[in-house]
Structures are given as structure tokens and as C-alpha cells.
Amino acid sequence: MSDNRLDSEAGCNVVNGRVLLITACSGLGFNLAPHFGVYQLYNYLIKKGIPCDLYDRDLEQNNWTEKGEEYFTERISQGFYDIIGISVSHDKVLGEQKMVEDLNLIWRLRSLTGRCEGRPIFVAGGQAAALNHEQWLNLGIDLIFLGFAEASLYEFCHRMLTKPKPSKTGKHFSDIVKGIPGIAYRDLKGRMLYVPSKLVTQDSFRELFYELPMSYEMPYHDFWDLLRYRSANQQLGGSEFIFENVRIYSTSHCPRRCGFCNSQSFLTESILENDELMATHENHETVIFSKGKMKIIQLSAPELGALTLHYTEKYGARSFLFSDDDLLVGTKQGVNRIREFCNLVLEYKALGKIAKDVRFSCQTRVACFLKSKKEVDRELIQLMTDAGWLSCGLGVETFSDNMLKAPSINKMGITSKDCRNVIDAMLDIGMVPQINIILGIPEYTPKELIETVAIAIDYVIKGCDIGLARQLLALPGAPMYSASKYKLATVSWKHPVTGEEIEIPDYFIPLDPKVAFALENFDEAAQRELDRVMEVMGWEGLASPKRVIAVCALTALLRLLNMPHLTAKLEEKVTMALNGVLKGEFRSQ
Ligand code: SF4
Which residue from 377, 424, 427, 477 puts its CA 20 to 30 A from 418's CA? Predict the structure, then answer.
């Protein structure tokens, strides 16, 4: 078994077919970017000599490639592929549950393979697949990869493609997976097997997130051109929008315990035995946490600096988004890493190694900007701003102290005042906060929800960006996922072969009936409001600006709550905010 090192770029004497990797379909227009995880896997396999094709569903959805479903359908029908890998989602985007879309695609493709000699094996990976492996294995996937899957996927492909096909020798694919870590599958007898992943080490992390991305071509220019072509007006946000943006992943995982979030469980669950998994614990009222423990691993400041130089020189990148869940994670050490990186960037800019207007953004927690006595770390914000930090996403979630402590949020030790202090300091210093808010917290009373909307809209007017999560999604692997306290809304999907109706967990139904009604009808109402604005602006067919989507959504929410005695004034303010945003006002930069 190979470890994660790139030990060979030579061919692997393939005797069988090829591998097809299929990206997730984000469904969003304003933040299109190459699907980092699938491009990584594709290039990892190619470098090790595995013949592989990539089907990018985001490019297809935007008519930006000729190689869409029709092209690959033809090749699948002709038996080109022995392995078809798909990055599946359990996510709701603008009202659509993406798992349904993925299941439909899987079964459309499966229906083509009946005529192939030796059916391809369908594999899946990523957070949604790994943390809900049992359901995906029941619904059309043969083999799931857990955690960071590059080495295990390579090993599987190598075995499948270099030896006689299992189907030709009367074997089941599960006969050849022995010894491969980080997989879940059903064997020929239908037994579910879960084989833990290896621990992520500094070396393996460095290889995957530092060496590998610098060793291949990423189609950034295609995506930047597409964004320019598709965007209605990207300059209506609180901060300047730069098309030439590259995403950097620099931290293995976030160790926090927010009740709704499953990012924390992706790696920690991958290293456990089957009987230790969260899914095996029944009868819990509110939240349970993964028992897996893994050290946080990060790229160093000089490595981040080298990546920045690489992308600016090679592609002309002018902006970097650190896509870590929490860039400053690791308290003192995490903050020191970013201080060191900022000083490096200032040095590069002074020496002319990168342009002075290269910008950065990230997401992190409010607590990372608080010192020991909850004093805001203004020096850190100032240093990041000086280095070019354009904006900073903050997982605020709510401005209600009660909700911050609710099990579904579980942001202990942070208050609404702390959040506002950090946001105010950022605005004062010149960094644009992007405030991430969840509207559908199940414990919300209408009054608490309205208070949060009121504070959020004030911040839009002051120049903040706002990122809205609508309903609180039921994400497999989240601490609250199977809690008895919360009621789930599900979507139905009919299995095309068995005809069975499958219920897919969708979101948590708010406990208050008025909030529940608003969230149940929210997606359609928000879309109607957005369509109206897009038509008024003459933007039909283009990707709506993110801040316009958010303010339209707040307009719809207040109407649905139908409590004019509480919302009349606020509705006027939201309308005023929308008009201002559409005129390009309320911007900090
Ligand atoms: S919401 Fe953010 S801070 Fe909380 S566990 Fe998830 S990634 Fe970590």
C-alpha cells in the first residue's frame, strides 16, 4: 500500500479501462471556482499513471464546456470506464436538495452500464458520502472513501486497472480491497464494512495541500472568464470583488463543537472503528460528538507565502480566499501563524514580489479576535488589513445570546456583544466583515429571529456583507443530526429500480409554529423576490450578486412571519437597504 507521498509519476501498466471523476454541482453562480477536491484527486491519479477523465458539472451547468453529461454518457455506454467516482452532496442550494440531484445522476449513469462488459464500480467521497456512508451504499454507490482519499483511491484504481477485472475472474470488487484504509462498502454477502483511515500527518497534509496543488494546471482562467461572463454586477458587495481569485486550503480541520456543523467530524470519524461512530449512538436528546481525536495540522506561514507567490506568478491571481473552516484555529499558535504570514506578505509587496493590491479573505471565528479579557485584538485586525485582507467571514450565526447557547448552535463562551465588538472593530479599521447568519435555528422565537435580522440589516447598511443560511440543514455527522429533540423535514426520492420511496433528511423544523411556517415557505418566497429584483434590474439569466440574494431573502422572511406589529418598521428598513445595495451604496471599499 502506498502512503500519501508522490513516489512515482510513471505509468502503471493499465490493462483495463479508465476512471471517470465527476465534480459536485454547486448550483451557485456568484462564487464559482474549480472543485478543489475533485481536481486534486484527478491530478493525483494522473500523476501516478492512472488514465482518468474529469466531468465538471459546474462548467456544464454554465454551458462552459462541451464535455457534459451527453459526452460522458456516450463513453460510459461504450464501456470506457471501470470506475466512476462522484463527489456527492447533502446540501440545499436555493431550495433544491442536492442529494436528490446526485441520486438521479447516479441512476441515469447506472442505467447505461447494464450493457457494458463488467459494470463499472461507482465510488464516492467527501463529507456527505463519508458521514452518511450507509445511506449512499444503500442507494447506488458501491464503495465510499473516507477522509482525505487520494492514496486509497489511487490504490483501488491501481488494483482495479492493472489486474484482470474482478468480473472476468468471477470475483466481487470487494475481493480486491483488502488492506486499503479509509473505505466503507458492502461485501458480496451484503455486510457493511468500515475500514478506518490512516491518521493525517504533517507530511501527508503538506504533500496534498502544498506540493500537489503546485504541481498541476488548474483551469482558473476558464472559471474567471465564466464568472465575468455570468455575473450581473459583482461590485454591489461590501468589499471589492476580484475575479482572479484562488482558494487555498491550509488547515486539516476545525476541532470546535457547533451543534449544526459536520465539518468537525469528517476526519475524526474517518479514523474510528465502525462501532465507535456517531451514527451507532441512539437515543440522544440534543447533541453527541465524534469520539475521534486528531491533531490539527496546518501549512506554515512560509508555505502559505510560497503558495501565494506561485499562484500570482503562474496564473496572475490577485486575490486569495483561505477556504479553511477557521483560518485562525489553534488559538495562540494559529494567530501567530497568520501574523507571520501577514508580515511575509508585507515584505513581498515592499520588494515587488507580488502586487500591492493583492487581496486576501478568509473565514474564522469571532473568538479568534478576542484576547484573554475579551478585548478585541485590534492589532491583529490592523495587521491583516495592512497585508491586504479584503474581508473576513465570521461564523456569527445569530445575535441572540440565548441562541448562541442553544444546543443546535453551541457557541459557548461567545456573546452577541462579543460578535458586535469584533464586527465594529473591523469596520472601524477598514476590513469588511462577512457576517454568516442562520435564519432557521430550531429554538428561535419570532422575536429573537426578528432581533437578529434587525441587527444584521443595520450591519449591511454600515457596509458589511452578509451570508445567509436559510433553514438549519440536517447534515449527517453534525452533533445534532439524530437528536430526538428536533423534528426533521425530509424530501422524498423514488428509487428508479425498486420503486421504494426514500426519505432524505433535509432540515430541522423550527419549534415555534410561526418560525416553522416562515422557513417552510421561505425558499419559494425568497426566489420570487429575487426574480422580481433581477427583472427590474434587467439581470435575467445572470448570476445574482450575493448581497442582493441575502437582502431579498430577508425581505421574504419578514413578510412570511406576518407579524406587522413587530416588523413594519424593519420591513421599511430592509427595503431601504435593498434599494441602497442596488445603487451600489453601503460599501466600505
Ligand atoms: S461551524 Fe465553524 S467553528 Fe463551528 S465546528 Fe463548524 S467549522 Fe468549526
Answer: 477
Terminal-to-terminal C-alpha distance of the chain: 52
Predicted-assembly ipTM surpassing the 0.95 threshold: yes
Any ligand 1 atom below 6 A from CB of 264: yes
CA-nearest of 357, 455, 340 to 404 is 455
Task: State yes or no: pLDDT of 8 exceeds 60.
Answer: no
- Contact yes or no for 338/384 (Cβ under 8 A): yes
**SS percent in the chain: helix, strand, coil, step 5:** 45, 15, 40
Q: Decide: 397 in ligand 1 pocket, CB within 6 A.
A: no
Does residue 287 line the site of ligand 1, with CB under 6 A? no
Asked if 220 contacts 246 with a C-beta cutoff of 8 angstroms, the reply is: yes
Give the Cα separation of 153 and 196 in Å (integer). 14
The 3-class secondary structure across 235-290, one letter per residue, is: HHCCCCCCCCEEEECCECCCCCCCCCCCHHHHHHHHCCCHHHCHHHCCCCCCCCCC
Q: Parse the chain into domains and list their residue ranges.
A: 18-198
- Ligand 1 pocket test: pick from 131, 249, 264 the residue with the most ligand atoms within 8 Å of its Cβ: 264
DSSP assigned state of 471 = E
Beta pairing, strands 143-145 & 121-125: parallel
CA–CA distance, 203 with 16 (Å, rounded to integer)? 32
Distance 10 CA to ligand 1 centre (A): 40
- Helix axes 522-536 and 546-561, enclosed angle (nearest 10): 130
- Which residue lies with its CA nearest to atom 6 of ligand 1? 261
Between CA 522 and CA 513 the distance in angstroms is 14
Q: Which top CATH class is 18-198?
A: alpha beta
Instruction: Write out pLDDT tens, residues 235-291.
Output: 667 677 889 999 999 999 999 999 999 999 999 999 999 999 998 887 788 899 999
CB of 251 shorter than 6 A to ligand 1: no
Q: Is 567 in the pocket of ligand 1 (CB under 6 A)?
A: no
Q: How far is the CA of 582 from the centre of ligand 1 (A)?
A: 32
Give the up-direction half-sphere exposure of residue 100: CA atoms within 13 A in the CB hemisphere. Answer: 16
Helix (H), strand (E) at residue 123: strand 121-125
What number does the ligand 1 atom closest to the CA of 256 have? 5
pLDDT tens digits for range 392-408: 999 999 999 999 999 99
